[in-house]
Automatic annotation (TrEMBL):
<dbReference type="InterPro" id="IPR004447">
    <property type="entry name" value="Peptidase_S41A"/>
</dbReference>
<keyword id="KW-0732">Signal</keyword>
<keyword id="KW-0720">Serine protease</keyword>
<dbReference type="GO" id="GO:0030288">
    <property type="term" value="C:outer membrane-bounded periplasmic space"/>
</dbReference>
<protein>
    <submittedName>
        <fullName>S41 family peptidase</fullName>
    </submittedName>
</protein>
<dbReference type="Pfam" id="PF17820">
    <property type="entry name" value="PDZ_6"/>
</dbReference>
<feature type="signal peptide">
    <location>
        <begin position="1"/>
        <end position="23"/>
    </location>
</feature>
<dbReference type="GO" id="GO:0008236">
    <property type="term" value="F:serine-type peptidase activity"/>
</dbReference>
<keyword id="KW-0378">Hydrolase</keyword>
<comment type="similarity">
    <text>Belongs to the peptidase S41A family.</text>
</comment>
<dbReference type="InterPro" id="IPR055210">
    <property type="entry name" value="CtpA/B_N"/>
</dbReference>
<feature type="region of interest" description="Disordered">
    <location>
        <begin position="399"/>
        <end position="423"/>
    </location>
</feature>
<dbReference type="InterPro" id="IPR001478">
    <property type="entry name" value="PDZ"/>
</dbReference>
<dbReference type="InterPro" id="IPR036034">
    <property type="entry name" value="PDZ_sf"/>
</dbReference>
<dbReference type="Pfam" id="PF22694">
    <property type="entry name" value="CtpB_N-like"/>
</dbReference>
<dbReference type="GO" id="GO:0006508">
    <property type="term" value="P:proteolysis"/>
</dbReference>
<feature type="domain" description="PDZ">
    <location>
        <begin position="97"/>
        <end position="165"/>
    </location>
</feature>
Length: 448
């Protein structure tokens, strides 16, 4: 079995008296002259660095135990170089580049989990709702130890993604160490189509709505606008929209452009986010503009440790502009911006080029967004196999009715009863509703 060569340099050690035998002669490299301290401190020039790389490439190609092609060695070296920069930079071969594009624009197959490389461990940022990973109980902070019996210890992040994905209805077996677990557990998951609907909504009561944004893909803003228009139309008979709970919990992020346009729906003016890199070329400020679709209803935003990247841009912008009260738990803390750079052969680079800053010029990199009101999630006394986010197809606005099953329709609980059960299971959501209902009174008190 070939070993993963990404990011590894080959060192030939000749150890006398080790009791080991080798088939065939091994020629040691010529002894190098001793360097003076001054010479050691001098950085390698680009030419010297490339010459060293070429020498090592030649040694590995000639002397490694297996016959490895030069193209494979170079790809491994590129992956290792990018992996050594930060957890989010990586090399994407043509197939991986295509898969990456599908995650933001189309349907793809897998288990539905956002992952990151933290301290050399494959860590779950968040499972995507209504996916095999989510239904199997995978949670933020879980560590993926093996995939189909293969240790993830020496895999790159992209290797892990490629192994987890696969054709629909095929199985993948993961060994998982849960956040508070003492022993690994084995999960056998059947790959499925990852849903591309990113916005869901449900009415709390007349005038008050719960809106879940599960990620930021190409259609998120359009979906959110549609949901808000439906809510406004429905609430018109009851005095209009009176409050919104925007739920960004376990939202792993996505497209920067969508984070900006979603924030702009709730802001009339001012900075949404600024980006700062090594040079002026990468610096940019995104600002809100007044538009007819601006939403003025009081807001609460829910976040937790699974809220990352684009979610944190939205939460940070609404917090700094005092547009919404942020409730829940400290967010993940991914404050870096990646550019996807296509290459001529169909492959690509995902490269961290900048950090983003909230309107108050705060970087959330490795810090996260701190809620205005911190409320840890409390598991209900009794739980079943249902998720705590209980939105289903029947809960979606404009869902298609099943006209062929009157019995199923009669057996279905009323929306009010479903909402009561959801609030009973979710203490953060209960608090968010209470706060958003009290915001007009608090605002009036502050103005006086």
């Amino acid at each position: 079995m070939r070993h993963n060569l990404a990011g590894y340099a080959l060192t030939l050690l000749l150890i006398a008296g080790c009791g080991c035998s080798m088939a065939g002669p091994v020629t040691a490299a010529p002894a190098q002259e001793k360097q003076t301290p001054a010479e050691k401190k001098q950085p390698l020039s680009k030419f010297d660095a490339l010459r060293r790389f070429g020498q090592i490439l030649d040694i590995v190609e000639r002397s490694y135990v297996e016959d490895i092609g030069q193209a494979e060695l170079v790809n491994g070296a590129i992956k290792g170089m990018l992996q050594g920069l930060d957890p989010h930079s990586s090399f994407l071969n043509a197939e991986e580049y295509k898969e990456m594009q599908e995650t933001t624009s189309g349907e793809f197959f897998g288990i539905g989990v956002e992952i990151s490389m933290e301290n050399g461990q494959v860590t779950v940022v968040t499972p995507i709702e209504d996916t095999p990973a989510f239904k199997a109980g995978m949670k933020t902070g879980d560590i993926i130890l093996t995939i189909d019996g293969q240790s993830t210890q020496e895999m790159t992040l992209q290797d892990v993604v490629s192994r987890i994905r696969g054709p629909k209805n095929t199985k993948v077996e993961l060994s998982i160490l849960h956040t508070n677990g003492r022993e690994p557990v084995t999960l056998s998951l059947v790959r499925g189509a990852i849903p591309i609907v990113s916005v869901k909504s449900k009415k709390f009561e007349d005038g008050y709505y719960w809106i879940r944004v599960t990620r930021f893909s190409e259609k998120t803003t359009d979906e959110l606008l549609s949901v808000l228009e439906d809510a406004a139309r429905e609430a018109k008979a009851h005095g209009g929209l009176r409050g919104i709970v925007l739920d960004l919990r376990n939202n792993p992020g996505g497209l920067l452009s969508q984070a900006v346009s979603v924030s702009d729906l709730f802001l009339k003016s001012g900075t949404i986010v600024s980006i700062k890199g090594r040079s002026d070329v990468t610096e940019r400020v995104y600002a809100a503009e007044s538009q007819p679709t601006d939403v003025k209803a009081p807001m609460v935003v829910l976040i937790n440790a699974g809220s990352a990247s684009a979610s944190e841009i939205v939460a940070g912008a609404l917090k700094d502009h005092h547009r919404a009260v942020i409730v829940g738990e400290r967010s993940f803390g991914k404050g870096s911006v990646q550019n996807i750079i296509p290459l001529a052969d169909g492959s690509g680079l995902k490269l961290t080029v900048a950090l983003y800053y909230t309107p108050d010029n705060r970087s959330i990199q490795a810090e996260g967004v701190v809620p205005d009101i911190e409320i840890p999630f409390e598991m209900p006394a009794k739980t079943d196999n249902e998720s705590r986010f209980l939105l289903r197809e029947a809960d979606l606005n404009r869902h298609l009715e099943n006209k062929g099953s009157e019995e199923g329709s009669k057996a279905r609980k009323s929306e009010d009863q479903q909402m009561k059960e959801q609030l009973a299971q979710d203490n953060q959501l209960r608090m968010a509703l209470q706060i958003v209902k009290g915001l007009p009174s608090l605002q009036a008190i502050r103005n006086n």
